[in-house]
Design a protein that fits this description.
- Strand 1, helix 1 and strand 2 form a beta-alpha-beta unit.
- Helix 1 crosses helix 9.
- This protein has one domain: P-loop containing nucleotide triphosphate hydrolases (Rossmann fold), CATH 3.40.50.300.
- The chain is an alpha/beta fold and 276 residues long.
- The protein is 51% helix and 8% strand.
- The longest helix has 17 residues.
- It has 13 helices and 6 strands.
Length: 276
Amino acid sequence: MFILSFPKSGRTWIRAVVSGYLQKRYRQDVDLEFSVASRFFSRPCFTHNFFDVYRYVERPVELLEKEFLVEKPLVIVVRDPRDVCASYFHHIGSRDRMWTGSILRFALDPVYGIVRQLTFVNMILDLYAAHSGPKLALSYETLRDNPAAGFAELLSLIDQKEVDLKVLDEAITDASFERMREAEISVSEKGRVEKGARLGVKDWSGDTNALKVRRGVVGGFWQDFGLAGGILVSALPSVLGLVSRLRWLREEVVRVSPPSRCTGGAAHEECGRANG
């Protein structure tokens, strides 16, 4: 299974919930990279595809190895492009230290900017629409609004078994924004960031914008861009088109697990209500 997204669309949070659930359910170590094979479930492959290879290179966007993406179950994760752009700005600037200009210049940049992001997201939406096998589309906003339902659907694809919502409820609590941020700050302050670690900032200056778990707010781009900048970015025709497309996706495509796939747990009532 491929879980495909543009950077800063909520992938680390999804990794944390899914790995936490599988670890609790099967009582085996499951890290954020899913680095150890399991006889209980197939390891999901998280990928940014083109942007895993050409993130810092000015090159026409394309879907790499598309033939493999259409042969396997596909999950796409999308997020409001304005929030993605703001989060990406802080990641490239404060975490990777590859950008020193303003956020508005960043949004218009040919390598890092929002047009390149939109090109890729529209490509994965087209891929999803044409994909004939098992598939799921998730939006960050929908997951934030109803994590139990969205993660139950995702886990039913990964695990191919009934989703234990009691265990899922625990995994969601463990992977809350507050707990993940606290953990990342702790390892960053103590200088215990291992090479290649997903959470933590090496030689951290205390700048919270450098954290992987930075803010986690829907619509937070207004604070980053300011009113004038937010209006300008929002008015770009390509942004308007994708925002409209993602609104349809949240309303029509993102589904919840059928009641027969759910068992027990504090989230059971929520899942059942969403299915009703």
